[in-house]
Amino acid sequence: MSRKKENLFLFSVDLEDVRLRVHKGLSYRPRVEEMIEYYLDFLNKYQAKATFFTVGDIPKYYPSLINMLVEEGHEVACHSHKHLPITSQTSKEFRDDLLLNMESLYTAGAKELIGYRAPTYSLTKDTPWVFEVLTDLGFRYSSSVLPAQNLLYGWKDFGENPRKMNANLWEIPVSLRKGSFFKVPFSGGVYFRFLPFYFIKRSFDFHYQKNRAVTSYFHPYDIDVDQERFMHPEINNNWMYNQLMYFNRKKVFTRLHKIMKLYDSKIITYKSFVEGIDNE
Ligand SMILES: [Zn+2]
Prior knowledge:
alpha/beta; binds zinc ion
């Protein structure tokens, strides 16, 4: 049976604290809790539940955050313990890191960890063993592939629809839209802030016309208009790119509300999306 037409928006936050990955980062103010409150205000306005892909060190610095998300009915999922790209790890290192991530989140109050997102979408065709490890540890889905050639990572021929990688595990690739030069993940992070709104809108149009759910990847810093200036991690000390990391943060919620209004989008967790496609 095919899914009834709804404009699904898989809303997710990569719950991490960038301070912990920059030089002398703890000298900057902690901002994560306040930013999560803003995301929850947004979600509550639409009575929606979202997925929070969480790094293992979050509970250490924000001990009540996981419990709060669970109590409010959101999905907590894994985003690695140390936030290293998968491509730099062996299968064993990946597994050990993920076990630490799980232990940290379960100890902090997570109930059922079935979802995983790789740091910086670093799951590529060169790391297919990831799916075996995830399945072995009880995961039901991953959302870790950027299905195009990209400057950093990318899995060019993966395809843009969710794909079942084995009997138990789905990969839900990030939504892309073709720009002038290459395909871009328009629905989160820097791209959602930087691209002109008409491009974002056309991208949502394109996916919803095909009856495809739009995935997303927001971060606490994406909406933080008061964060101190520092060089963000994982951008090779690129000054230009760092400017973009701060660009247009104040517009994120305005744009999100516009999207919600334009399409009457329905925000759901990745977990409920997977349950839905498993029953089709
Ligand atoms: Zn991340």
